[in-house]
Amino acid sequence: MTRTVFCRKYQQDLPALETPPLPGPRGQEILNTVSAKAWQEWMAHQTRLINEKRLKVFEPATRQYLQEQMEGFFNNEEIDQAEGYVPPSDQ
C-alpha cells in the first residue's frame, strides 16, 4: 500500500515520497509534508532555474536561493520563474 501525506502545496492527501529527498531534519520534514507529485514538480522547476539563470549549485548563495525558492514553491507563494520558459500547455 502506498503511503500518503497531506501535501502542503496541494492541500490534500497524495502519495508520499518513499525516502527523504534531503539529509537530516529538513529531508524528514519534506517527507512528511510534501507529496511525491509536488517534489517532482519542484525538481523540474529547480532544474529550469539552474539552467536558465546559469546558477552554480556549489556556491552557498545559490543553495540559499534555491532553498528559499523551494519553500515558496511548496507554500504556494510567488517564486521566480525561468525567463523564456513556456509551460507545455501554453505553447
Automatic annotation (TrEMBL):
Source organism per UniProt: Marinospirillum alkaliphilum DSM 21637
Known function: Could be a mediator in iron transactions between iron acquisition and iron-requiring processes, such as synthesis and/or repair of Fe-S clusters in biosynthetic enzymes.
Record has Iron as a keyword: yes
GO biological process entries: cellular response to oxidative stress
Cross-referenced NCBIfam families: PRK05408.1
Name this protein carries in UniProt: Probable Fe(2+)-trafficking protein
Keywords attached to this entry: Iron
Family in the record: Belongs to the Fe(2+)-trafficking protein family.
Any Gene Ontology CC annotation: cytosol
Gene Ontology MF, one: iron ion binding
Keyword Iron included in the entry's annotation: yes
